[in-house]
Amino acid sequence: MEKRKAVLIILDGVGDRANPQLNYKTPLQYARTPNLDNIARKSVVGLMDSIAPGIRAGSDTSHLNILGYDPYRVYTGRGPFEAAGLDMDLEPGDIAFRCNFATVDDDMVVIDRRAGRIKEGTDELLKDIDRMVIEDVKIFVKPGVEHRAALVLRGPGLSPEVSDVDPHDTGLKIHDAKPLSAEAEKTARILNEFVKRAHEILKEHPVNKKREKEGKKPANIILPRGAGMVPHLKSFTEKNGLKAACVVGTPLIRGICKLAGITPIEVPGATGGYDTDMVAKMDAVLENLRDYDFILVNIKATDIAGHDMQPLKKVEVIERIDEAIGHLSENIPDNVVLILTADHSTPCTVGDHSGDPVPIMIYASDTRREGEAFNEISVLRGSLRILASDLIDIVKNHTNRAEKFGA
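-> structure tokens emitted (407 positions)
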């Protein structure tokens, strides 16, 4: 029995609801998708719940579940995955946060949570902040894309059970981190002291003085949120017998993959935004299939359009995806199983994640041919109605790698 390889393509947040701007169709229904629909006609199709019916999944918890890691056991917060995605050195017991560079006034009221979407100079801003020591805790900070950064606390007696400093909106004062358990009192104290000291340094920094002279908003504070303890994830390859890689543009998903021992493949032009080079991602898959048994691809732009509540933009992104999938399907070897789905729904009418199930299709040369088109309604004629936690076992079945249960 020939063992096959697999490519799993996650169209981030592609699931949606009926939209009045699209004649009450979903963006997937409304978009012209000849290549996706052609694959659907040769595939097993259906719906998948990211966690369980009605549960609103984050991109972090849903990807963990898709990859076979129980998010209820291993997930304490988003921070560790963001930090890992930025290639920060992490140790068991570290507490990590995702952060924004932001702008506050003299009363610590947030004027802009993204500091004018600062695009340069953040590495300079962090030089006097990175490796700060407070009490017996070492603090590491690394810039991400634009206004984003990650923060890691390393020391004894720390806990991820602290509230966010980020108020998550403008016009509000920054929050004091609060301990959510007795074990987290030290962490909250250290975090609040760090934010205070960092603000004193940043507000006088030459990069910010220059920005103010140019009429730009200064990045004069760092707002941590999403605290989490670095989890131990058993190697995906060890768990599943699949040598794995990923092609992703966002630090969050890259970090999840890294912590799971899945090798990130660097792709020039893979930005994690609207401008990401989707064809380059597909070329990276084709170029690396000889070296890996399983490749995960994440395309983020559909999720961004959902959050932006722009259904026509989402349609445009889907049609670009369809072209890239056409390029992949024309060149992919016959012995590769192709799976397309989403990590969650991000309806344009909501502007955030929802608990709606997402479409899924699985193609191999000998799969049962159930589909008609790739959208939330057409896939209902198929046989699949699964949880994301089932997916890797189903993939191993279609790649002829599943172990027999019984004699």
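Residues 43 and 363 are 5 Å apart (CA to CA).
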